Amino acid sequence: MDNGDGEADDLRTRLHAMESKLSRVRGQRDSHSDSAKRAADQRNSAQNKRNEVQETITSRMDEQKKVRVQAKIHQASRDEIQQSIREISSRKKGKRDHGPSKSVVIQLSETVGEIERIEDRIMTDGSLTLEKENSLIKKLRSLISRRDELIPHVEQQRIVSIDLNNMDESIQRLRAEADNEHKLMLEQNSLADEIWSEIKPLFEERDFLRGEGDRLHALFLEERGKADQAHQGVVELLSKVNEIRGEIRSQHEERERLVKDHNKSVRHALRGPDQNEELADSLTEKLLGGGSVTFGGIVSSGVDADDQQKPKAKRAPRKLGTSRGRKR
């Protein structure tokens, strides 16, 4: 029994050590899992913040683009007006430009002037032949179509119309308009620059948040890997703990069985004949077989037990007195 007790103590010692290590490894696994969860939460927060910053950047960039477009429109209008001023100045000096390089203002002014001259001639010249009049009408229709094409371009660029008959006044009006367009262009460009100065720090913040998100994601993967590794250790230790528990349980059951068998043997040795089921069964079989059973005393040899138990007949009492002969 001493060897069994020593082995059981050794198993319990091993079990206690395994359970302590299992508890420690579980704590490590839970700690790594908590660290991974914190890293994942911080990563998600950084990514959400980065997305918000990116949306702000996109919105502000779209706003800046619209401002730049407006600046370009004012610049184009200024350039167109300045081109008109140069053409009028050249016309005033006796030079006349031809071709598509003319500004739309000059082209529109010349077209409108030509329309007015043809209409006036048709209305006032009575010497026109029918053929000549039809020719002028055809040309007039072409000029009107051209005028209708030029008007939207002039209105789109917000260029004032001019009167070529009064070049000095037209030049002054165009210069004022050009200065105004230049001023508007500068204002829009200044506004776009202000928007850009607000956007630049957002780019830095976005890049920082992206890097922080990447770092936290790497930390999450590292902690998650450590947690998985610790969990594998938990599984292995738990298997060993269960194995030792099974051995202890088997030894305990074996000891209980031995004690039970020993107690049963002692009880069997100490019981009396009246408690002996085997003896009772044997006597029962003997009685059923016609034999005899004696409880206590000694049975003499050669004497049937039945004869001993049969009661003897009583002797008749003897009468006293005299008598001669036999009575008949």
Kindly describe this structure.
The chain is mostly helical and 328 residues long. It has a single domain (2-236), classed as Helix Hairpins. Helix content is 79%, strand content 0%. The protein contains six helices and no strands. The chain has helices at residues 2-92, 104-124, 130-156, 167-270, 277-288, 305-309. Helix 1 (2-92) runs antiparallel to helix 4 and helix 2 packs antiparallel against helix 3 (130-156). The longest helix has 104 residues, at 167-270. The radius of gyration is 65 Å and the shape is rod-shaped. The model is unreliable at 297-310 and 316-328 (pLDDT under 50).
Helices and strands in order:
Layout: H1 2-92, H2 104-124, H3 130-156, H4 167-270, H5 277-288, H6 305-309
Helix pairs in contact: 1-4, 2-3
Poorly predicted segments: 297-310, 316-328
* Overall mean pLDDT: 77
User: What spatial form do the alpha-carbon principal axes imply?
Assistant: rod-shaped
- Total strand segments: 0
Q: Ends: how far apart?
A: 96 Å
Count of helical regions = 6
Observed structural traits:
mainly alpha; disordered C terminus; 0% strand; 328 residues
Short description:
The chain has 328 residues and is mainly α. It has a single domain (2-236), classed as Helix Hairpins (Orthogonal Bundle). The chain has helices at 2-92, 104-124, 130-156, 167-270, 277-288, 305-309.
